[in-house]
Amino acid sequence: MPANLLGQRLTLQSWGESHGSAIGGVLDGLPPNMVLDIAAVQSALDKRKPGSSKFVTQRREDDTIEFLSGLYEGKTTGHPLAFIIANKDARSKDYDAIAQKFRPAHADWSWQEKYGIRDPRGGGRSSARETAIRVAAGAVALQVLHHLLGPAVEVWGALVELGGDAADGQSADLYKPHESPFFCHDKQAVQRWEKALEATRKDNSSLGAIVEVRARGIPAGLGEPVYDRLDADLAKALISINAVKGVEIGAGFSAARLRGEENADEMRTSNSGVQFLSNNAGGILGGISTGAEIVARFALKPTSSLPRTLRSVQQDGKNAEVLTKGRHDPCVGIRAVPIGEAMMSLVLADHLLRHRGQVGNLGGALASVEEESP
Amino acid sequence: MPANLLGQRLTLQSWGESHGSAIGGVLDGLPPNMVLDIAAVQSALDKRKPGSSKFVTQRREDDTIEFLSGLYEGKTTGHPLAFIIANKDARSKDYDAIAQKFRPAHADWSWQEKYGIRDPRGGGRSSARETAIRVAAGAVALQVLHHLLGPAVEVWGALVELGGDAADGQSADLYKPHESPFFCHDKQAVQRWEKALEATRKDNSSLGAIVEVRARGIPAGLGEPVYDRLDADLAKALISINAVKGVEIGAGFSAARLRGEENADEMRTSNSGVQFLSNNAGGILGGISTGAEIVARFALKPTSSLPRTLRSVQQDGKNAEVLTKGRHDPCVGIRAVPIGEAMMSLVLADHLLRHRGQVGNLGGALASVEEESP
Amino acid sequence: MPANLLGQRLTLQSWGESHGSAIGGVLDGLPPNMVLDIAAVQSALDKRKPGSSKFVTQRREDDTIEFLSGLYEGKTTGHPLAFIIANKDARSKDYDAIAQKFRPAHADWSWQEKYGIRDPRGGGRSSARETAIRVAAGAVALQVLHHLLGPAVEVWGALVELGGDAADGQSADLYKPHESPFFCHDKQAVQRWEKALEATRKDNSSLGAIVEVRARGIPAGLGEPVYDRLDADLAKALISINAVKGVEIGAGFSAARLRGEENADEMRTSNSGVQFLSNNAGGILGGISTGAEIVARFALKPTSSLPRTLRSVQQDGKNAEVLTKGRHDPCVGIRAVPIGEAMMSLVLADHLLRHRGQVGNLGGALASVEEESP
Amino acid sequence: MPANLLGQRLTLQSWGESHGSAIGGVLDGLPPNMVLDIAAVQSALDKRKPGSSKFVTQRREDDTIEFLSGLYEGKTTGHPLAFIIANKDARSKDYDAIAQKFRPAHADWSWQEKYGIRDPRGGGRSSARETAIRVAAGAVALQVLHHLLGPAVEVWGALVELGGDAADGQSADLYKPHESPFFCHDKQAVQRWEKALEATRKDNSSLGAIVEVRARGIPAGLGEPVYDRLDADLAKALISINAVKGVEIGAGFSAARLRGEENADEMRTSNSGVQFLSNNAGGILGGISTGAEIVARFALKPTSSLPRTLRSVQQDGKNAEVLTKGRHDPCVGIRAVPIGEAMMSLVLADHLLRHRGQVGNLGGALASVEEESP
Asked: Which of these, C24, C126, D150, D372, is most buried using a 10 Å CB contact count?
């Protein structure tokens, strides 16, 4: 399996560098005869797009997607769906000064050590620019979920913590967050975050964040233990996003502090089938979806590109001071929300096709949750 | 790729159920001409073995491993190394009562919904019994690391939190924990944990835990961005362990609360090469090892099998009360330590072979860390 | 993907050496809830078994299969089906003399050059003993085809040429060959072959053969162009059988000598759907099954182990004369018939699951053929 | 693994349809720091290009390749190398008449049955247009072989039979065939073939062909038994080329008519190492290269697109007569020569990286052959 390929049966191969002429992706294994809603894909890209608010990088990219194959009269043919996004606002001169220096907390050092070569222009292949490919592919994967499971499937993310300041998890609106530039409907939190980001920027610093992603309407039955568990593939997909340092499912690390009877999501029969009395499992037990809401969270470190002098070394082994200019997000976590949604959609759609191959159509039940976990 | 296969070039396929006649594994892709230290493999299995203290399940298994192929005169031939471990103390009658009921927090419900069939004897394939295969394979993988990188490579885990009570991270001894049945050298913590477990058992409850795994002596250069990053594959491997609900690398979730300049591990030239002034990255940047110590942590939920009545449903859809008898660990986190080590070794050895294929022998530098992260 | 793994969604991993304690296999991805007919698997093994006539190796093996996992109450659980076959009649002393010499036309030289080590006992991993695993797995795969496509599916092979002497392709009985020890119902041919083999044995020589394998009842739609075509995966599977040097589909090499209008299988509507007026395509067009009978042939070189002195070299680089004693088939092609059937079944079942994953249940039509190709 | 992906460690993913805006490919896993000779890639494409003689399709395409990623200052970075070739001369109107009819011997029927949709414009994804991607990727793979094994490696093909008329295999020049538009240096054969093709074209018919591909300078040691044998992967790659119905290695089907002592390639020590006294094995024994020349042949059926009325059926199930207009090759075998070379290079380069991963640098010996097989 190539290193730039995600999934087994619905696969995404991604290619391209920050300052090349374009980036692109290839989705293979799509169900045939599916009408592709290209506008929905473009709309997902627009959410992730740089320059959409003052708190994300000011690089200006249209991020207009072009589909090059795999479609006939607007429908998928079952053959590879190739797409491409042009790089228009690549200013390589911004980066010339650091071509010989390893920026702390960046991929520079480890990539140079591995490959003996690296493309320093905008971080090359290690740039978060690549995540546009994930978002486009994830939007297609969501359409696969709708195509096979119906329109009730929802996959959405929210920014739930920024710089250590958590949003109010009790807000019923918290998890319909998409109109907000912060992907969060806790208005108080958003106001605090805006101030914090403003101050951080002035201070030439940056902040980390925690993002939550949820999927509703996914029946029980997705996941392939013992290694290709649904949670394992989700964790891999989420931690493969730039700057992510941790991932958890359901109660996650908090589960390690619960007692057995607190953690166990008890079950009852309800009018509409099985009801879980809680959802500490985050919708996954034994590596397979339970029919309850699937809940994952991931932690992003603060943006590593700082307009601040940091100690480092250079390619010739000598000590150096590095100051990263260029256009960067003060908190990469914000734009990570649509990326997290995309990864969730890709993993679910891949596992849906995998399940159908082994077992047949997904007949597993949906389950309700008595007290929705916040 | 089969669902029960881990890795790409050094691959482990695992098979077997808790109460079948045996469990087994197949390691393919091993470097040829490597002397296999079978005693070291058996020794790793003995660490994980049930019944080794009163705080782990009292099921009695020798866990004696038998190698069936892939060796000639004690050396690997480059062909599949198959091994088998007999199940001797499988008491299926303990489980007959719950064959029709879904145990909360167990795989019962989701597996039944997926496959339409499940082996209820001891949890069948979802049992933690399968982890013995991981431990055996991990011990072989560690030998691959030694064979190719030299004897200085170390991979070891420690129990760093039990029931919400953390060990003292400052103890220099903390990270040489193997003589202790708790895999932890903070003697005060161990004493507190013993008491807590004793009380928990009397209370028919269970506790969760956090395990840390570290690898030393791994040069810069392992990992294959953008999807098969070293951290992504580690996260997948660790979260695939039974009961794990979260995983983090280096500073992990705490990194989301640091400022950019705090999180960035600055670098300096030292006598022995590059030195990182901190290791928030946990030895991985941009998905590739940096040469510094690799650090991962994972959270385990409390044992789900409780001698306590919980509300659930049965296979016919009716409500039921479930009380799980049988022999179980009050904290599955304890035995997870050698399993976590095994997963780390397997992922590193696989990536070492992958790197050698693409780039050649791993020439990346080792890096020191000024202040060892606790 | 490991080198000893066949398939993508129904996968077979094989392990074991000729003179180890056992050989075995792991089938992963099986549909759950399928009753496994173990007697049918054993029966397939008995067909391939050494010692079943005087024209195959006189090594005596029961070839009794034992299933170790993946079954509950006689049904598949969707988890790995592991099985094992003991090696009982391994006489390693027969091979000691040639441990230092490379037998011509054997794997000895190339394997030694690759791995720097080889197990000389009975050819180690390169022995045709491994094919017992294929036959067992193929018999399970055939049950998958029956389970999902109905009992009308047939997969069977025939010996159609031995030592350059072809069976009569016009015989209607030719393709129901299984009661014959030669897997061929052309009684004249069998009589000629028996004489030829007897003479060949006396002459310390050996003969090659051509085997044909056919599958009936496979609807249109299996295969995944452009690389994982059904014919491409079949060719790989068949040529991976020991001693096979060529493979062809339908008219095969003869198609290169036809004119376009002769080769093109014209189509007409018939009462039962589409009818092909010929089947030069061998049931596969554009890499996908057409619904007509699938036809493949493969050529086996004469047995390489000869009780005859041949010129060779030894491990130390010096010239040597090699005379291979031991118990061998005068024509390995005979036992290759059930192996070819097994490979066909494995490839078809894997592609059936792959198709179901991407497209859903296989709805493609069956097609008849006006003049059955002989 | 996606269906449009070839290889394991050096992987090619291909996308695009005959009449889309472009076709393209992604090569992942390339060794870093390799200077890419783009002109050599373009030159390989020019050899396969339509319109280069009157005996190949008169579609006019520049087939100018553009590299979009994976390069920095002319060298590979170890990240995906994406490339694209525009479709400029796609005349979809030529094909409108047959959109509802299944052309005999084409992919139309089986693809429609599988996917329930097909792109009829120029055959869509089933068109041989896709093979341009293979040729481009193969030219890069050949550079990988040169990069790692030295400039002595040669991979080249020849047309050895056309319409049943074989070239003279004794001609010493036969196997340096590239200056000829027929990829064959037997001038008498070429003259006969030209006449035959001219007559065939006038007769609205087409001819098949046999192509031979050879690789020199490949040391012993490539291939991964028991399933991923070098010959098995070669066979899969070659038979995946459009119109190929058979493949053989070394003596191939003829080996089935040899006696054991005739077929066995005896060995002697020579000044330069091991010498095989013949090469019936075609350079592969036990699935691993022997160091002798690697020889494969594949058979192509006659071009299926004929300006001749053939009986067929239409999408609504009724009988129909089909007459395929458009621009087609009278013998697709001619253009298959560079495609066969490309597939050979891709398989060898992939196995070279795979070998290096498991075993280290390829140290296997080259072997000479006393009597070069014709």
From this structure: C24
Q: Give residue limits of the domains in chain A.
A: 5-371
Distance from CA of C95 to the nearest CA of B (A): 14
Dist CA A121 CA A6 (whole Å): 25
D350–chain B nearest CA distance, Å: 9
> Which amino acid appears at position D257 of this protein?
R
Give CA–CA dist B122/B93, Å, rounded: 9
The closest alpha carbon to D340, from D300, D291, D369, D289, belongs to: D300
Residue B92 at interface with chain C, using a CB cutoff of 8 Å? no
Residue C265 makes CB contacts below 8 A (sequence gap 6+) with C276, C277, C278, C279, C280, C281, C292, D104, D105
B102 to chain A: nearest residue by CA?
Answer: A267
Amino acid (1-letter code) at residue B40? A
Q: D235 and D329 in contact (C-beta within 8 Å)?
A: no
Please name the residue that has the structure tokens 């760093």. B160
- Return d(Cα D263, Cα D256) in angstroms, integer: 9
**pLDDT tens track for D204-260:** 999 999 999 999 999 999 999 999 999 999 999 999 999 999 999 999 999 999 999
Task: Return the closest-CA partner of residue B161 out of B189, B200, B196, B191.
Answer: B189
CA pair distance C232, C252, nearest whole angstrom: 13
CB A269 within 8 A of CB A370: no
Contacts of B147 in chain C (CB under 8 A): none
- D311 strand-pairing partners: D321
> Among partner residues A15, A29, A32, which is closest to D116 by beta-carbon distance?
A32
ipTM for this model: 0.96
Stretch 253-292 of chain C: residues touching chain D, C-beta under 8 Å:
253, 255-269, 274, 277, 280-282, 284-291
How many CB atoms neighbour CB C267 within 10 A? 29
Touching subunits of B (3+ CB pairs, under 8 Å) are A, C, D
In tens digits, what is the pLDDT along chain C, a chain of 374 residues?
999 999 999 999 999 999 999 999 999 999 999 999 999 999 999 988 766 667 766 677 789 999 999 999 999 999 999 999 999 877 666 666 678 899 999 999 999 999 999 999 989 999 999 999 999 999 999 999 999 999 999 999 999 999 999 998 766 566 666 667 789 988 899 999 999 999 999 999 999 999 999 999 999 999 999 999 999 999 999 999 999 999 999 999 999 999 999 999 999 998 888 999 999 999 999 999 999 999 999 999 999 988 899 999 999 999 999 987 766 778 989 999 999 999 999 999 999 999 999 999 999 999 999 865 44
d(CA D195, CA D198): 5
Q: Does D225 touch chain C (CB under 8 A)?
A: yes
Q: Which CATH superfamily is domain B5-371 in?
A: Chorismate synthase AroC (3.60.150.10)
- Strands D209-216 and D154-162, by their bridges, are antiparallel
Q: Spell out the SS3 assignment of A232-301.
A: HHHHHHHHCCCCEEEEEECCHHHHHHCEHHHHCCCEEEECCEEEECCCCCCCEECCEECCCCEEEEEEEC
Q: Considering only the beta carbons, identify the residue of C245, C261, C277 that sits closest to D251.
A: C245
DSSP percent split of chain D into helix, strand, coil, nearest 5: 30, 25, 45
Backbone angles phi, psi at B140, to 5 degrees: -70, -40
The alpha-carbon radius of gyration of chain B (Å, integer) is 21
**Residues in a beta bridge with A28:** A11
Question: What is the rounded distance in angstroms from the CA atom of residue D368 to the CA atom of residue D219?
Answer: 11
Q: Which of C30, C75, C356 to mutate to test the interface with A (most CBs of A within 10 A)?
A: C356
Nearest to A247 by CA among A319, A168, A343: A343
CA distance B47 to B156: 12
